[in-house]
Amino acid sequence: MADQRFSGIRINGLYKIFGSHPEDYIDAVKTGLSKTDLLNKHAHVLGLRDINLDIPSGCIQVIMGLSGSGKSTLIRHINRLIDPTAGEVLVDGVDIVKMNEQALREFRRQQTAMVFQKFALLPHRTVLENTVYGLEIQGMPRSKSNDIAMRWLERVGLKGFEQRYPNQLSGGMQQRVGLARALANDAPVLLMDEAYSALDPLIRVDMQSVLLDIQKEIKKTIVFITHDLDEALRLGDQIAILRDGEIIQQGSSQDIVLRPQDEYIANFVREVNRGRVVQVDAVMTPFQLGHKVSGPTIASGTSLEEAAQLLCRWPDGEVAVTGANGERLGLINLRRVVEAMVCFQNQPLNGLAGATPDSGAQAVS
Fold first, then answer.
1. Alpha helix positions (H), the chain
2. Residue 247: helix, strand or coil by DSSP?
3. Could you give phi then psi for residue 331, rounded to 5 degrees?
4. Per-residue pLDDT at 36
5. Chain centroid to CA 150
6. pLDDT tens for residues 310-364?
């Protein structure tokens, strides 16, 4: 097997049919048999249809959709808790669908970790004992596993709670234990199935912040399942939206908010606060050599909301948008930022007054 530190995931032509004889209907589904007809005529359920997805190493890939869309079915194919009816699931360049039982067991122990919606803590074990559980399964000496577990418990804010039992913790604290347990395994792939859905809104936002802060350091490949669009937009480097077992649209947060592919996606993003998602690159005008600007500069990738706070001090002027090396990429002013955030909330990018298709395409390519 190749280097385990590479953890890109590629899913090719993945289908899942639930029923007593799924292989009998795979060809019909591939040639257009609908989910409804498969159920009504053949008493089989179509879980996934032709899923194709590339997840780069170190990326947070969010899979979202309504209940019954197939998102939890999809994530369970990545560690093969569910066997596909057809297709490939390549992790580290190896198709896990073809693994034998021993190889699959080792793959699950060494290369994946999972955080569940219902915490899945062992009630008779303390916080520390829950956190070291995966390391025990791997056969690691207890002194070493305790050190690793304590480091992660401290990182998720649970230092001092290591001898408590799960029933002595709040829901948010229990989920922190689940996250620490998964991170302690040091697996390159982290699977999170509706991990925060059972939490209260404020605790949920706090846990999102914890995950983002930790991800800056560890750069795991994270597949995060949610039905909440705000959560998806905040966490996802990439987002794939499912409906009835099919991917309807995939791309960055900005791609999906600015260019919904159909009415279903448009309804999802209609009430989104664009200011937190759209970046200045999408609405700036190209910089012309010789153009003189004064005042501050704004970094490429800055959200419109952050830019508006800065531009309030220069309401009548233009400022330069700069790249990583300080080069001037474009110009932005307060009016264009406000228009993008408010006046054209439900219009595509090229509906912005004065926006240029070239600048928008560059920003979301």
1. 26-30, 35-42, 71-78, 101-111, 127-131, 133-137, 142-155, 171-184, 201-218, 229-235, 253-258, 263-269, 274-277, 304-311, 334-338, 357-364
2. strand
3. -125, 145
4. 95
5. 27
6. 888 887 778 889 998 888 889 988 888 888 887 555 454 444 434 433 333 333 2
Structure tokens at 111: 């290369």
What's the rounded Cα separation, in Å, for the pair 185 and 189? 10
Query: Model confidence over 249-291: pLDDT tens digits?
Result: 999 998 898 889 988 888 888 888 888 888 999 889 888 776 7
Contact 340, 279 (CB under 8 A): no
Q: Which long-range contacts (CB under 8 A, 24 or more apart) does 22-26 make?
A: 22/85, 23/85, 26/85, 26/86
Residue 206 sits at the vertex; the CA angle it makes with 201 and 209, to the nearest 5 degrees, is 130
Expressed in angstroms, the distance from the first to the final Cα of the chain is 34
CATH superfamily of 9-269: P-loop containing nucleotide triphosphate hydrolases (3.40.50.300)
How many Å apart are CA 243 and CA 48, to the nearest integer? 10
What is the model's pTM? Answer: 0.84
Q: Are 279 and 300 in contact (CB under 8 A)?
A: yes
- Least Cα distance to 183 among 254, 132, 259, 250 occurs for 132
Residue 189 in tokens:
């792939």
Write down the CATH number for the domain with range 275-364.
Answer: 3.90.1280.20
- Cβ atoms of 13 and 50 closer than 8 Å: yes
3-state secondary structure of 198: coil
Residue 297 DSSP class:
E
Residues of the chain with CATH 3.40.50.300: 9-269
State how far the Cα of 16 lies from the Cα of 19, in Å rounded to an integer: 10
Looking at the predicted structure, is the pLDDT value of residue 300 above 60?
A: yes
Measured from the Cβ of residue 232, the count of other Cβ atoms closer than 10 Å reads 23
